[in-house]
Amino acid sequence: MRALLLNAENKSATVHIIPRPLPSDGELLIRVEAVALNPVDSLYVLNPLGETGRTVGSDFSGTVIESNSPTHQVGQRVAGFLQGACSINNRPGAFAEYLVCPADQLWRIPDPMTLEEASTVSLCALTAAQGLFYRLGMRAPFSWPVARGGPPGTESRGDGAVAPFSVFIYGASTSVGMYAAQLVRRSAEASGAAVKLIGAASPARFPLLQAEPYTYDALVDYRDSNWPGQVRTLTGAANGVDFVYDCISEGATVKMASSTLREGGKMAIVRSREGGAFDPDSLKVDPVYGAVWEAFGVEIQYQNLIVPASHQARAFAGAFYTWLSSGPKLTPNPVRLMPGGLERIVPDGFALLGSGSMQDRAQHREEPHMKPVSAEKLVYSIAT
């Protein structure tokens, strides 16, 4: 089969022919139909952690062609994500014609979602779910224990209802941000709580974010230096939000986002202190951070830290995937279907994503498919 393999020495990746993998007990063999690009995919090709020969890429969708699990049948459409070359220890990647994956780390794609749309969901939607429910302790819209002793949005008032709460999402038009907004709405619907959802984004994206399925109550321009004050004003007497979810977590904006919290509020971030280059001592609270890779339930050697194996994190991912499998729950990110296949991921897709930072992305390509990325996901169809 063809696969996109890391060349650590050249800080690039090229397509090679390698043997098709064989599924073990509890695993499925999947014919990959579509892959979606994430900033970490390009980041760890341009700044390699893995050794040459690793298959790169994370998000995928495809069709089961061999099943060693009673939970899935041949012919089912499924989606998920793999580690790719985003670790020091050897882990499988998704940018290939075939892959194997444990059955509990996949979800069945509901009709009428397309394979291309489904490929955009897994990594970023799970990142958002982890941030909101697993780390901040908001009440999940699926079966998962409710947090105790948390701010509004977590515990009941005593009459069975959840107290009203407010959420601010910085980076509302990012892939994670678009899933986070939907999950906040699903959480409020499941609990019966009233929620005020505030976001920061470019005004060009306000119409998108005000409409279904995101339905922000208020939006602020992230370029306006006074947006933290505007967010606090929007919360009235509370003078701050209950939860902040920073979906970018880079530099000085982390401090600005933390300043929108009320006393006793909680904040989650998507980058570590080292990755986001911010000063944690300048923040109003100690933000919660964790890597989405926890979902695999195995030890991951990642950057300058070790993500320990967590059976609880794997169980959370399984509960989330079961919920996704039960019917249309989330609207996928808007898709930009890129021309070409595996061979065009590095010269086009990775050029658009840069090295992982929002500030390091291609700006000067003239082809229509090479316009800057905003509020959409780059997707490639994989022909076999």
Description:
The protein folds into two domains: 2-121 and 297-381, Quinone Oxidoreductase, Chain A, domain 1 (Alpha-Beta Complex), CATH 3.90.180; 125-290, Alpha-Beta Complex (Quinone Oxidoreductase, Chain A, domain 1), CATH 3.90.180. Helices cover 23% and strands 24% of the residues. The protein contains ten helices and 17 strands. It has helices spanning 39-46, 115-118, 122-135, 175-191, 206-210, 227-234, 253-258, 273-276, 311-325, 345-353, and strands at 2-7, 12-17, 27-36, 59-67, 77-81, 98-102, 106-108, 165-170, 195-201, 218-221, 241-246, 261-269, 288-289, 300-302, 305-307, 335-337, 377-381. Strands 3, 4, 5, 6, 7, 16 and 17 form a seven-stranded mixed sheet that branches. It has a six-stranded parallel sheet with strand order 10-9-8-11-12-13, sandwiched between helices. InterPro entries: ADH-like_C (IPR013149), ADH-like_N (IPR013154), ER (IPR020843), GroES-like_sf (IPR011032), NAD(P)-bd_dom_sf (IPR036291), Trans-enoyl_RdTase-like (IPR047122).
Largest sheet: 7 strands, mixed
Distance between the termini: 8 Å
CATH class of the largest domain: Alpha Beta
Mean pLDDT: 92
CATH architecture of the largest domain: Alpha-Beta Complex
Helix content: 10-25%
CATH-defined superfamily of the largest domain: Medium-chain alcohol dehydrogenases, catalytic domain
Per the principal axes of the C-alpha atoms, what is the gross shape?
A: globular
Instruction: Tell me the number of structural domains.
Output: 2
**Strand/helix succession:** EEEHEEEEHHEHEHEHEHEHEEEHEHE
- CATH topology of the largest domain: the name is Quinone Oxidoreductase, Chain A, domain 1
**Low-confidence blocks of residues:** none
Organism: Colletotrichum tofieldiae
Keywords: Oxidoreductase
Protein name: Gag-pol polyprotein
Domain Enoyl reductase (ER): 8-358
